[in-house]
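From: lab user (bench 3)
To: helpdesk
Subject: output format question, protein + fe (ii) ion

Hello, I'm new to running complex predictions and I'm not sure whether the block I got back is the full result or only part of it. Here's what I submitted:
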Amino acid sequence: MELNQNNVAAAEALMDYERDRKGPPADFPKLPDIPGGRYVNRDFLELERERMWKRAWLYAGHVDQIPRPGSWFVTRNTGSPIIIARDLKGEVRAYYNTCQHRGAPLVKEDAGESRGFICGYHGWSYTLEGKLTAVRDIRDFTDLDFACRSLASVRCELLGGMIFINEDPDAEPLVDHLGPMVKELEQYKLETLRLVDSRRYEVDCNVKVLLDAFLEVYHLKSIHQQTVDRFLDHRGMFITLWPKGHSRMITPNRRPDWRDPGTIGMPKIPGVTDIPANNNVSYHLYPNFVMPASDTGIPILQFWPLGDKKCEVVSSWIAPDHDPENPDPMWATRIGNWERILYEDLQFAPQIQESLESKGFKGMPLNYQERRIYHWHEELDRRIGLNEVPPELRVEQVLSDQIATA
Ligand code: FES
Ligand SMILES: [Fe+2]
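Helpdesk reply: Thanks, we reran it on our side. This is the complete output you should expect:
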């Protein structure tokens, strides 16, 4: 479904259509069950890791974490130790925290500031651009070519102030990869938003168990009865599936004039259109980044596999006119409320994992409302290679006619 962000009437018509329909649209395909093995089968999860996670654009952090030339932090979320640094010219760079001599780490802390890196093992020195500049006892090496011994770089590109990395050197540019979403995101002026908060939660389940919960609103009436369900009308929700696994879900407020009381009076991003200002618009950047944008601040959630049955959720907030030295006192309550909702979403995850591993679970019949989850799985098979997924674990590609191009 294509939707111009300024066309409120079109959005309302779509919401009315969704509220009133008696079943899925006539052209919507029947979704085959998602095989349960996709959440637990070790060989499959290994394929998922190598073919998808290791080649995906993944959010690593925010430019506010590296405010000055020479600031850096380390991320291990992709499964490899990667330094994100701001070089002396102010450019953001990423490379493995891996000395090119014998692999010792260049930095041992999680964040810091320096004019370059000196390996703690034998003292090789590198610039912030990753160039090798000095080697102790150089006389004892034969023909050591400094030019070939730079730190191994990782692809690193920005979306506003958000830093994305990709371990695949041949990955297409981030903006091309995100496609039609990029234009729509311009209204949020992401480059002006400041990092307000970031916290992590470890959960004992496969990463997809949690991610799935953030791709649908079918669960609002059960687990968010006292929170989100009070103000969002999940039956009016409509979805746009974009190429490459990305998607958007717009859920109307129950009352068009409803405002979260915890945000009234907070600074607003100028120019945000009425649809995100008056509804819940949640973007999903494949594979693991979920962003329900609003005009007073944007929570960003990432879901990281820490193993086959352990994952981490990182929940951060970016917002306009935030002063880290003097934060708006409303943030403490706002983040507290958000955390309460998150805990509601996390509550069943370890038991779902237990079920997925039992003989009691065979597969998932997904409904029309849950089609973003199916879209996610279809994309995973495309990235793995359709014929390389074991036949009993494949998902049939049935949504291609449902994918919007703008
Ligand atoms: S491992 Fe870094 S200098 Fe030897
Ligand atoms: Fe939820």
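A quick orientation on your result: The CA atoms of residues 240 and 248 lie 5 Å apart. Let us know if anything else is unclear.
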